[in-house]
Amino acid sequence: MSDPKDIEANKIVRREFNKRQLDITLADLRVSHGVVYVRGVIKSLPGTSADAKTEVEHIVHLLKLRPEIRDVIIEAQIK
């Protein structure tokens, strides 16, 4: 069974990506023991001028400030 803290952290991670207008439909986001793992493909939503790489770096910084999250590992291709 999943840890309730990891479930809550997963919601936080998804919320942050959605706020920044990033397409994570081809990405796998998981939280295990407070560590966020992001694999797959991350890209800006069509019609937005957001730079995906800059936005992901900003998200990683914000997530590391959260007490529920111990570390963030990005193993995704950023387009």
Descriptive notes:
This protein has one domain (4-78): Alpha-Beta Plaits (2-Layer Sandwich), CATH 3.30.70.1770. It is 37% helix and 33% strand. It contains two helices and four strands. Strands 1, 2, 3 and 4 form a four-stranded mixed sheet that branches. Strand 3 (35-44), helix 2 and strand 4 form a beta-alpha-beta unit. The radius of gyration is 12 Å and the shape is globular. The model has no long low-confidence stretch (mean pLDDT 95).
Short descriptors:
single chain; about 80 residues; alpha+beta; Alpha-Beta Plaits; four-stranded mixed β-sheet; 4 strands
Summarize the structure.
This protein has helices spanning 4-19, 52-64; strands at 22-23, 27-32, 35-44, 71-78. The chain is α+β, with helices and mostly antiparallel strands and 79 residues long.
- Succession of helices and strands: HEEEHE
**What name does CATH use for the topology?**
Alpha-Beta Plaits
- Global structural class: alpha+beta
The first-level CATH class is given as: Alpha Beta
The level of helicity is 25-40%
Q: Largest sheet, described in full?
A: 4 strands, mixed
Q: Please give the radius of gyration in angstroms.
A: 12 Å
